[in-house]
Amino acid sequence: MDDELDLPAYLDLAAAEGLHVLLRPGPYICAEWEGGGLPSWLLAEPDLRLRTRDPRYLSAVDDYFARLLTPLQPYLSTRGGPILAIQVENEYGAYGDDTAYLEHLAHSLRRCGVDVPLFTCDQPADLARGALPGILATANFGSRSAQSLATLRAHQPTGPLLSTEFWIGWFDRWGSHHVVRDADQAAQELDELLATGASLNLYMFHGGTNFGFTNGANDKHTYRPTVTSYDYDAPLDEAGDPTEKFTAFRKVIAKYATVPDEPVPAPAAKLAVPAVALTQSAGLLENAESLGEAVESRHPLTMEELRQDFGFVLYETTLPAAGPVLLELEHVRDRAQVFLDGQPVGVLERENHEHAIAFTVPRENSVLSVLVENQGRVNYGVGIHDRKGLLGEVLLNGSELAGWTSRPLPLTSLEGLPFAATRTVTIGPAFHRGTFEVAEAADTFLHLDGWTKGNAWINGFALGRYWSRGPQRSLYVPAPVLREGANEIIVLELHASHHARTVDFKQTPDLGPTEE
User: Fold this and answer.
1) Is the model's pLDDT at 513 over the cut of 60?
2) Rounded to a whole number, what is the distance in angstroms from the first to the last CA of the chain?
3) DSSP-assigned states of every residue in 13-57
4) Which residues form the Beta-galactosidase galactose-binding domain (predicted)?
5) 414: pLDDT strictly greater than 60
6) Cβ distance 183 to 251 under 8 Å?
7) pLDDT class for 498, splitting at 50, 70, 90?
8) Which of 16, 193, 502, 510 has its CA 20 to 30 A from that of 83?
9) Residues annotated as catalytic (active site), given as ranges
């Protein structure tokens, strides 16, 4: 099992530290995670309906529960383990009101040997839609605790009061500001909640990272992708170091419970490596064949039809004649870079509701290439049915443009790229490679000042996305990714590369400006 996916090891660690666990297996988790945690292959069937009693969906859920929960039975509290209770779905009341669907999930959990209490969680206004009779209902909120708990008590006259998600920060999206919440104000909200005698689960206590391509997105009439960092302005930051909010919360909690009589650990050592030169390059379009196998079809195929989870799809076709044209792409999911004979002619972004671009074709049989990036599947609301790539019609001067190749570029391995030394400024998309030395591995932050948009890898580990539009301007690099001696960095730049093609590793992050 991959280390970062080793749930039993996590539960062993919790038990060793004397912690209890509220297990929240979904299958839908939201969490600003790609697709809300639901696997993309579910969307390969065009009419499948997620989070419903669609038999195909329920069959997949039942199989998932059986595979996940059967090995976890020794970790249930009824067997001496740390798992006190297990959640049924997640904030379902914000999505639907099918009690029979929730009942199916509860029965499926029981069939897998779960004999600890079950619970649901919803925002206060959605309790009536998302609760399940006979199952403990809990509430998610971040302020107005007395009012929220009163709503919970009105819905559920007896039983414990629990805020399963007590929001003490928030997440960021590309093109906005870095969201922070004043530590003293958040501590006051915490104090007000604890004074009621209710229980709570801090969301988030420890900030995290949407490594690789795992960030989600929101779409409330406008698509908004989440950034790589999930620092969340949490008491423990993205690197696990205590913040001002940690100290403020510790003081409040000490009023209601015993806290350890020992000093708070100091922030861990950080690494700095300035001006790492990326001296080798490999173009993406020129080397696409080494990154994925093209599939021929009349229409462009979606990522899901290609059985692809993350990354990019490169669509190509030839244009019949020279002259001015209007290219119309009905649905771009999510960002399309358009090239003609390898030269960039424009970008279309779902976020800006763009779907058409005009340009002049220089010659008959010019090659049209459209590189489409999946910027994160929607993780909340009906938008979770978020198929990626080019969807719907493609028109050229009003007529169907048919006869395409669709090439999946998941970028799970970059080993086949023919990197070569170059000193010239590259008009992307291109991969840039460099090496740097580390005497002793430690956490650090990759800064990409002067770069435009793309992805970064350290020793083959996908750190995440960067984008000059911000707010985030650095990527967290955990110490285990590094090794003593030589280390490799690869940066995929989708546009023009930095004229100097250098990056910096610094001891502090840059998550962007906050709202004034």
Assistant:
1) yes
2) 45
3) HHHHTT--EEE---S---TTBGGGG--GGGGGSTT--TTS--HHH
4) 429-487
5) yes
6) no
7) low
8) 193
9) 91, 165
